[in-house]
Amino acid sequence: MRIPFFFRYFFLVLTFGLITGCPNKVEREQQIRDRAITRNLNLLLATRQCRSCDLTGVSLEKKNLEEAQLEEARLDKAKMRGVRLVGAKLRGAIMFGADLREADLRKVQFGKDTRINDVRFQRANMEGVELSSIARRVSHANFESANLRFANLDNLQLEGPYSRSKRTHYYSVPTGGAIIRNADLTGASLRGVGLGKADARNTNFTNANLRSANFEQADLRGADLNSADLRGARFNGAIWTDGRKCKLSVRGSVFFADRIDQPDMIACPTEELCRQARCGSRVSSD
Q1: Between these two residues, 260 and 118, which has the higher pLDDT value?
Q2: Sign of the four-CA dihedral 28, 29, 30, 34
């Protein structure tokens, strides 16, 4: 029995497609998306405007995007090391996992819907930036050696990476604190900021407003708290600037574990006052 020509032709086309690896639906959609991202990138570089654009994973290292308009743009995992974004508009932008190391972010306009989880801000210039209006909880925050002089971080909850449940595969519990070591927060406003378990070694908090800030179990070794406002701040179990560990159940002042004959409420905002107290043993440096 002869096989009709139509069926023979269809069989040959199908066989050829399987052999040559004809893209499936998912691959075609990805190719379309990649082409759209490339178009968006070219538009941004040509006009510095790309509102609501998908720029996932693009490379913008050391580009000059001063005053760029990127409201509601998608910048997940974007490579933006050393980028100049002075005065850029990032309200509503989603930047999960973006690399902003050494970026110039002065006067950047963030908004309440901006997402900066897992963003790397090491050595970024964020002087005077307003971060208090973004999403309150920021996970895997890394501001190591960043310039945050006179920045506003009021009420932000800066946390470390989240642990992943083996049963549900959801990330739920932070495994550590934010990283702000060696950062310059001179004159910054951090009222009510959450820095529990944070690595704040050698951080400069000179003249910073730290009222009601949470430093529970934070590491403050080498930090400069000169003239900082610590009223209402919590240091339960924190490692103080000279390596002594603070007593538990402390609010508003700094106490040390071995103090038993001193008044319960004695402010300890400076090293000079701390040295007057009978303090616990120093925590060893790592």
Answers
A1: 118
A2: positive
pLDDT recorded at residue 22: 55
Length of the chain: 286
| Inter-residue contact 157 to 138 (CB < 8 Å) | yes
pLDDT tens across 4-33, in order? 555 555 555 555 554 455 567 788 888 889
Strands 157-158 and 137-138: parallel
Q: Which residues pair with 282 in a beta bridge?
A: 244
The residue written with tokens 């932008």 in the block is 93
DSSP letter at 238 equals: P
Confidence (pLDDT) at 264:
34
Q: Tell me, what's the pLDDT at 139?
A: 84
Dihedral of CA 243/214/196/209: which sign? negative
Angle at 156 between CA 78 and CA 68, to 5 degrees: 35
Q: 27: which 2 tokens?
A: 């691959």
Rounded to the nearest integer, the mean pLDDT of the chain is 80
What values do phi and psi take at 173, rounded to 5?
-120, 125
Name the pairing type of β-strands 162-164 and 157-158. unpaired
Contact 204, 222 (CB under 8 A): no
Three-state DSSP class for 1?
Answer: coil
196-200-203 Cα angle (round to 5):
140
What CA–CA distance (Å, rounded) separates 94 from 91? 9
